[in-house]
User: Fold this.
Amino acid sequence: MSLEKIKKILDNYNVGDVIKHQKMSYGFANRNYKLTTTKGNYLFRINIQQDLSSINYEIRVLNELKKNDFPVAYPIMNKNGKYITEIKKENIVIYDFIVGEIPQLNKQSVKEIAILSAKLNSFQNWRKFKRKNTINIDNCFNLIKKFDNAKYKYPIIFEYFIEQTKFLNNYVRNSTPQGLIHADIFPDNTIFKENKLIALIDFEDVCTDDLIFEVGMTINGFCFVNNRLDTDLLKVFLNNYNKIRSLSKMELELLPIYIQWTAHGMVSWHLQRLIKHINKRQLARTIELMERVKKIRKMTKWELF
Assistant:
């Protein structure tokens, strides 16, 4: 987006005049700019995937977390008392910009994220925000139905996906503790400073689900190095998570499955797009995740823990 368009949008916000804007790396679901204004730094986000109802849900959750001083980047209200600026098909939200860096994967960063994720999963008012996770086993089966008529076909990935979905279906419908989850806790969705976690960002996938889903996803984000599970980091994560929220016996039994399931769920997210559009970066990530799931499935519980 041009600087002129950004300035025009900012006229409706009390964030000062733009001094400079910097395009940040694009995610798969949005485009981000860092804005430096006469009043400070802000994140200017153009949502690509989320619809209005999803963005509004995210904002409601963030504002509730704000009451509890949870370390996140909060949305900025415009002069009309709204958080979303709609321009054609683009939905724009401005957030606080928190200065820091993406962490290195080490015992300290894993300890920090384990504690914060456990605190989020212990959020008491989660029933006010019930929303189904977009990554769910029924959606995986619905995706399989699209394979025959897909514009772009990936026979090896499709074969893997069908078999693994059927395998996981035997386990992921168990009843385990539920609550609020971020659902995408990866290093690039966190901000660290001097090895300390200062913010969790990108709540676009926030929802309510099995809390063990959050645990499995965060392990995928913080305990894999070069696509291999680092069992030392895994132990650090589990030890510190349990200090805040103790995993139940069933959750511990299902954890190897949920490490697979959350990686497989990411494969499903990418495949939804790859069957319609070719994207080499997404395809490479899909293959990487597929290989990860295969390795974890072969490991015994004792090799994991």
About this structure: The mean pLDDT is 93. The CA atoms of residues 284 and 290 lie 10 Å apart. The longest strand covers residues 30-37. The chain has two domains: 3-96, 107-304.
